[in-house]
Amino acid sequence: MKKIQMVDLRSQYLNIKTEIDKGIQEVIDACAFINGPAVQTFQKNLEQYLGVKHVIPCANGTDALQVAMMALNLKPGDEVITTSFTFIATAEVIALLKLTPVLVDVDPDTFNIDPRAIERAITPKTKAIVPVHLFGQTAPMEEIMEIAGKHNLHVIEDNCQAIGSDYIFKDQERKKAGTIGHIGCTSFFPSKNLGCYGDGGAIFTNDDELARQMRVVVNHGMTVRYYHDYVGVNSRLDSIQAAILNVKLGHLDEYAAKRRLAADFYDNAFANNPRLKTPCRFTRSTHVFHQYTLETRNVDRKALIEYLASKDIPAMIYYPVPLHMQKAYLDPRYKPGDFPVTEHLCETVFSLPMHTELDTEQLAHITQSVVEFLNQ
């Protein structure tokens, strides 16, 4: 049996090696390494795939979030509501810009931000909401946009884990995750569903003026070369990464289908197991399974992960510490117990290998090993 990995990038590369190598070689031959034709091509292809007017490539997903907030002209002290159950980057950029992160709890089934908690957290200082589309499915965007409209708030979608997911509105209209709010942000970190071979990111919007502003921000605040009208940053997607992403974009829906098949295998193996709760599939969103995350019940999670490791099966905890309990973000406004769902999830969830190259033999070994441990 092939070695099991959390993400098997090498096997994925070997399956598309001819396309990838050709794209990289074209960039090297052209020597257009920054903002070259490969970046422009990828930008246009991603706009078409997402059905969005503007894609602004940038250096990484964290920069994407920061640039979005800079373009909205948020001021120090402005409050930005987001979830406590997410990767640190979501709150990191809020703090870096001297904005005030306001954390709220999540839905116990989907693990995504709870709209009722958002509404309760709004104050006169609130300027924006950052829903995180966690683990591969979209947050309840219709409800979030209704709340934002009622209170005149901006919505920045953190779509670093759900690119390719469809959100389904009550009237059955579909839109891609990241294209529903005022701005969407994504990461192309190698392990993402659409990942490059280094760092990369992008910002999406249908707003012409926001797009113009963000293109200025990512390029040192320049409107004309060497004329800097705004404070900006240097955040660019290089051409080699764009060439890689352009190849992988053509396979993105195929990759999502493979991830769903692996998730189906896991679901079937763990169905009706009283000690495991399989991932919820939100009826208003397709799931692209960036992670396959199980909630344990009366299980020694540490011992389970150690047992799997003894069987050469990796497993990860996303995330072991909620944002409001991270040392860098301790705040007298929050104390243990304030976000019971988030805190419970941090104590009970774990993720199994999930990627496009999992085969039936590997999946059988993983699931049999989990069940063996639970039956001890």
Could you explain the architecture of this structure?
With 376 residues, the protein is an alpha/beta fold. 39% of the residues lie in helices and 15% in strands. The relative contact order is 0.17.
Walk me through the topology.
Elements (H helix, E strand, L loop, with lengths): L8 H7 L1 H14 L6 H14 L3 E5 L2 H11 L7 E5 L5 H8 L3 E5 L10 H7 L4 E5 L10 H11 L2 E5 L7 E3 L5 E3 L6 E5 L13 E5 L2 H10 L4 E3 L2 E2 L10 H11 L2 H19 L5 E2 L14 E5 L4 H10 L29 H9 E4 L7 H15 L2
Parallel strand pairs: 2-3, 2-4, 4-5, 5-8
Antiparallel strand pairs: 1-9, 6-7, 8-9, 10-11, 12-13, 13-14
Helix pairs in contact: 2-9, 3-9, 4-5, 4-8, 10-13
List keywords for this structure.
376 residues, alpha/beta, Aspartate Aminotransferase, domain 1, 2 domains, three-stranded antiparallel beta sheet, 13 helices, 39% helix
Could you write a compact summary of the structure shown?
The chain has 376 residues and is α/β, with parallel strands linked by helices.
Provide the domain count. 2
Find the CATH topology of the largest domain: Aspartate Aminotransferase, domain 2
Name the CATH superfamily classification of the largest domain: Type I PLP-dependent aspartate aminotransferase-like (Major domain)
Could you give the order of the helices and strands?
HHHEHEHEHEHEEEEEHEEHHEEHHEH
At the first level of CATH, what is the class of the largest domain? Alpha Beta
Q: What gyration radius follows from the Cα positions, in whole Å? A: 21 Å
Strand content: 15-25%
Strand ordering within the main sheet: 1-9-8-5-4-2-3
Distance between the termini: 25 Å
Helix share bin = 25-40%
Q: Treating each run of at least 4 consecutive H or I residues as one helix, how many helices?
A: 13
Mean pLDDT: 97
Structure class: alpha/beta
Q: Uncertain segments of ≥5 residues (pLDDT<50)? A: none
Assigned CATH architecture of the largest domain = 3-Layer(aba) Sandwich
Largest sheet: 7 strands, mixed
**Which term fits the overall shape?**
globular
